[in-house]
Design a protein that fits this description.
Largest sheet: 3 strands, antiparallel
Structural class: mainly alpha
Strand content: 5-15%
Distance between the termini: 46 Å
Number of strands: 9
Radius of gyration: 22 Å
Helix content: 40-55%
Strand order of the largest sheet: 5-7-6
Shape: globular
């Protein structure tokens, strides 16, 4: 087991470089399925050794942390801009409503249409690489990788990555208000790709996409079951989609589907067995890596995110908030800040301009971009519990760890009160992590108390398919 964990560490520069070999399989081509014969030969050589398989899988994780995926637009970038979390942006755009222009290609400003198209392509590029990896694992895995547990782990991770990306495509391009809109599950939205060729696939109803995601995750969970007793606080497996991460992702999906019993079971299992606990301090760890069930490693993060998050001369042209916006967003009253998520360990404060900048990506010694963190499991228990008193206890447990005294514990007696309380905590906890936009969309929340000049809508929550996909892509648009 120790050997396996060491082999999978993303902290090694050697692996980062070797892993780039796998990116050539698809990224070097004119489109994300155009694999030339010479590339097949390169792939055959790559997959002729166990280290080649390992490098290929590392390469897939590297794809995930690109700026068009979870190293930008699908985390702290576009999604959080859409949720109006920032007042100042690296690209200098200032018109808050212009970001919802999904129809027009622009040369400046938010360039939302282009960013959405790039994120769609990048996520399907990751999926394509997973499918190619699985194909070679079927073809040569038994011959090349003699250890069955290692083969199972590779397959489980690839299936989990495929499911993770499809789920975010579903949440982004799929229907809004899934939990209460009876028509939402039947709306056709994205294809689910499990093949490596250029065959056109139909847009599937949201409920069928979700079913296929859960099918991949169920298989991945079984394959990774040898990690049931793994303690993530003692393991670098946090930089991979490990057993507990798969379980946590299943909790997230079941919550999306409003399947309370299964969401609760998965979330409780994670809390009880992953080995992580909620932290009461974010000193030198504002991203709370100690609570990451799964994260991506961004090599040279400070260099790669300096235009977005570094403090200094560009302070007001990065992802900053004005003081009054910050106070409303985080419920700060005057100088009183019980919540550790609002203190100096969490934010740089520029007193002259009265602006604040999160430290999550510039005080980040592990260079971690979180995919799933532990507090989400408590929020799922809060949302899914049928007992309002118990539901409040889950929410207050996180609040107390964050610094709120028990005298400030929240109480609610109905679903509306619970959603209001959960909404406030969710946005504070996952600021600059890309999750809040999906929370707003799933619950059909259109009013933002911290940005009252913006009203969201179904049209703004549901992204249109990219033009390229409609014109010459790999989807049967007629089935929409």
């Amino acid at each position: 087991m120790k050997r396996f964990i060491l082999h999978h560490s993303l902290c090694s520069a050697r692996q980062m470089l070797v892993g780039l070999l796998s990116l050539f399989l698809f990224c070097a081509c004119s489109d994300w399925f155009d694999v030339a014969p010479k590339t097949d030969l390169t792939a055959e050589k790559l997959y002729s050794t166990e280290s080649g398989f390992e490098s290929a899988l590392t390469g897939i994780y590297l794809l995930m942390v690109s700026p068009d995926a979870y190293g930008g637009n699908m985390s702290f970038g576009l999604l959080d801009q859409l949720a109006q979390e920032y007042d100042y942006l690296p690209d200098g755009a200032v018109d808050k409503l212009a970001i919802y222009n999904y129809a027009t290609t622009t040369s400046g400003g938010f360039q939302t249409k282009q960013k959405l198209a790039k994120s769609w392509i990048k996520l399907y590029n990751v999926i394509a690489n997973c499918n190619n990896f699985l194909k070679w694992l079927d073809t040569k895995g038994t011959e090349v990788i003699r250890n069955e547990q290692t083969r199972d782990a590779y397959r489980g991770e690839a299936l989990a990555i495929r499911a993770y990306c499809h789920f975010d495509l579903l949440r982004a391009w799929g229907p809004w208000n899934y939990g209460t809109d009876a028509a939402a599950p039947e709306i056709k939205c994205i294809p689910y790709r499990t093949i490596t060729n250029k065959e056109k696939l139909p847009l599937l109803p949201a409920k069928e996409v979700a079913a296929r995601i859960l099918q991949d995750l169920t298989t991945a969970k079984s394959l990774l079951s040898f990690e049931k007793t793994l303690r993530l606080d003692e393991s670098e497996r946090r930089f991979r989609l490990n057993y507990h991460a798969v379980n946590a992702l299943m909790a997230r999906v079941y919550c999306y589907l409003n399947d309370a019993p299964k969401a609760i079971a998965c979330a409780q299992d994670v809390i009880e067995h992953c080995g992580l606990t909620l932290s009461s301090s974010n000193q030198d760890d504002p991203i709370l890596y100690t609570e990451c069930i799964a994260a991506l490693n961004m090599y040279h993060m400070s260099d790669n995110t300096s235009s977005s998050w570094a403090d200094g001369d560009k302070f007001t042209t990065q992802y900053c908030m004005r003081q009054e916006h910050f106070n409303t967003y985080f419920e700060v009253s005057g100088t009183r800040r019980e919540d550790m998520r609002t203190k100096s360990a969490a934010f740089y404060e520029h007193s002259a301009t009265k602006t604040l900048l999160s430290r999550k990506y510039n005080t980040n010694p592990h260079e971690a971009v979180p995919l799933i963190r532990l507090p989400e499991m408590y929020y799922i228990l809060c949302e899914m519990s049928s007992n309002m008193q118990q539901s409040a206890q889950y929410l207050n447990f996180v609040r107390n760890k964050r610094g709120y005294s028990k005298s400030l514990n929240v109480q609610f007696t109905n679903d509306a009160g619970r959603l209001e309380a959960l909404n406030k905590e969710f946005r504070k906890e996952f600021y600059a992590e890309g999750q809040y936009w999906f929370f707003l969309k799933r619950h059909g929340i259109t009013q933002l108390p911290y940005a009252t000049d913006v009203v969201l809508s179904k049209e703004r929550f549901v992204f249109p398919l990219p033009d390229a996909e409609k014109e010459y892509g790999w989807t049967e648009i007629s089935n929409q």
